[in-house]
Write a structure and sequence with these properties.
- The protein has ten helices and ten strands.
- By secondary structure, the chain is α/β, with parallel strands linked by helices.
- It folds into two domains: about 1-205, Alpha-Beta Complex (2-enoyl-CoA Hydratase, Chain A, domain 1), CATH 3.90.226.10; about 210-255, Lyase 2-enoyl-coa Hydratase, Chain  A, domain 2 (Orthogonal Bundle).
- Helix 4 crosses helix 5 (about 160-170).
- The two termini are about 20 Å apart.
Amino acid sequence: MASIVYEMETLQVFRKNSVVTVTINQPTKKNAIDRSMWDGLTEIFREIAANANDRVVVVTGAGQDFCSGADLSARGGANQEQVHQLAAMRRVNDACIALQRMPQPTIAKVRGVAVGAGCNLALGCDLVVAADNARFSEIFVRRGLSLDFGGSWVLPRRIGMHRAKELAFFGEIIGASDAFEMGLVNRVLPENEIDQFVDEWASRLAAGPPIALAQTKRLLNNSLNVTLEEALDDEAAAQTVNFSTSDTAEAMRAFIEKRDPKFTGK
């Protein structure tokens, strides 16, 4: 069963079969995100994180583009901006943290432009699937700005420090095939095939064991911040949790009975 459970003019949330699709809906501005929308994304991501029925999250943009970054069209004068910029960046940061803290696997479905904060919104997802018309850019330097929405954190982790600096220093726009070669995206598909592919990936993840997937996501996200010994301790703690769940017992029974397991997240 499908349902729209949260809707405002510029953000929409659609649920179907434990898959949640979050759509940035401002296509006339290439889905640029204004201040109220950052608050909306934070609220949405936090609500999803707390909902055990939501097993996978797809983030995308309406129309022909993913997201052109922050909407700067409503900027005030210089003095006003200096006073309010820190508060504005807290909104951006809250949305970024809320995205990263979701225990569910997240997939960015990218058509058209994904630039600035929009690029880092996509890269902040666990998986990135791009149409062959997708274009990515850390465009900040062209606007006299530095990276935000976690770009300084996620870029080196995805593609290494030197390539991260290349993208950040020059702010060049790169196509989907170059993004794939760099390791920015997981898959590149013809534009008319991306919906079906993402639906299939999302369905596979939604059918998986939610607790084990959340543990795996946490372990991988923490992996660059811990020693091997700490990682092993974390893995042992995670497996202890997994073995206490009914999902692991169901997986063992399904293996013996030669059938697909049915995971409940318990």
